Amino acid sequence: MQDRLFQSEEFGVSTQAAATIFFICPYSTPIQKVLFAIRRLLRTGYHVVAYQTTAAVFTEADPMILPELISQVRGDIRSQIAKLTAEGVTEFGFFGSSLGSFILYNCVGHEIPELRWGVFNTGGNIARGLWKMPMLRQLHEARGWSLPRLEEAWAKLQWPEFGRLDGCRFVFASSRRDSIAPLPNISQYLEPMFSAGAEISVHQMPAVSHRTTVIVGLWKGPQLVRMVRRPSPLDG
């Protein structure tokens, strides 16, 4: 297993007046490929800390890499928040796409209580989503993994303990034609958040696949963020 399973890059200037968005790229997508989405957030006035994750999280067919990746990213976000808070930043949100969305699903609540609002750009069952990707499924089958075993290995990640989410606002962006993380299947993953007190909305995307759903969500980043972020008195 690699020592460091992600890379990060900071965009814009952190100020007391600018909310910081923790932005996690889709699986196997470098930051450079989603600069268009980051720039749209910057033009809207946000400060962005972006993360890209190693493709080995799935290509190594080792289910223990995913929880370690989540733990590493979570630790880095905590460190970033501590540093930014010391600099006077008071507001933190997030924008995660595909795998990035799943990582952030495991960051909210008692894990990182400062994340009060954010966008899940697609989301659902991580094991079933992987199993629908032929190359990744074959790699896991070659290592002796079945879908039920994979779901069992990732059960604690799929159903995290959030603690209380009172006052948190999240939006899930999805499409009925997304075969990897279809819109009709996400309600069961929203229920634990509802029960914990979060305010959640679902935004349906005009897309025809998982990839195009993610791309549309990235393009609509500022619009989706506006759905969950309450205006700050510092917005002026």
Description:
The chain is of the alpha/beta class and 236 residues long. The protein has a seven-stranded mixed β-sheet, with helices on both faces. The chain has one domain: Rossmann fold. The longest helix is centred in the N-terminal third of the chain and has 22 residues, at 65-86. The protein is built from eleven helices and seven strands.
In short:
This protein is of the alpha/beta class and 236 residues long. The protein has helices at 35-43, 56-59, 65-86, 99-105, 126-131, 134-142, 147-153, 155-158, 187-195, 210-219, 221-228; strands spanning 6-11, 20-24, 47-53, 92-97, 115-121, 169-174, 199-204. A seven-stranded mixed β-sheet has the order 1-3-2-4-5-6-7, sandwiched between helices.
Q: How far apart, in Å, are the first and last alpha carbons? A: 47 Å
Q: Structural class, judged by helices and strands?
A: alpha/beta
Radius of gyration: 17 Å
Can you tell me the overall shape?
Answer: globular
Mean pLDDT: 94
Q: Describe the biggest sheet? A: 7 strands, mixed
Quote the beta fraction: 15-25%
Run of helices and strands:
EEHEHHEHEHHHHEHEHH
Q: Helix coverage percent of residues?
A: 40-55%
Looking at this protein, list some descriptive labels:
single chain, alpha/beta, Rossmann fold, seven-stranded mixed beta sheet, 11 helices, 7 strands
Give a topology summary.
Layout: E1 6-11, E2 20-24, H1 35-43, E3 47-53, H2 56-59, H3 65-86, E4 92-97, H4 99-105, E5 115-121, H5 126-131, H6 134-142, H7 147-153, H8 155-158, E6 169-174, H9 187-195, E7 199-204, H10 210-219, H11 221-228
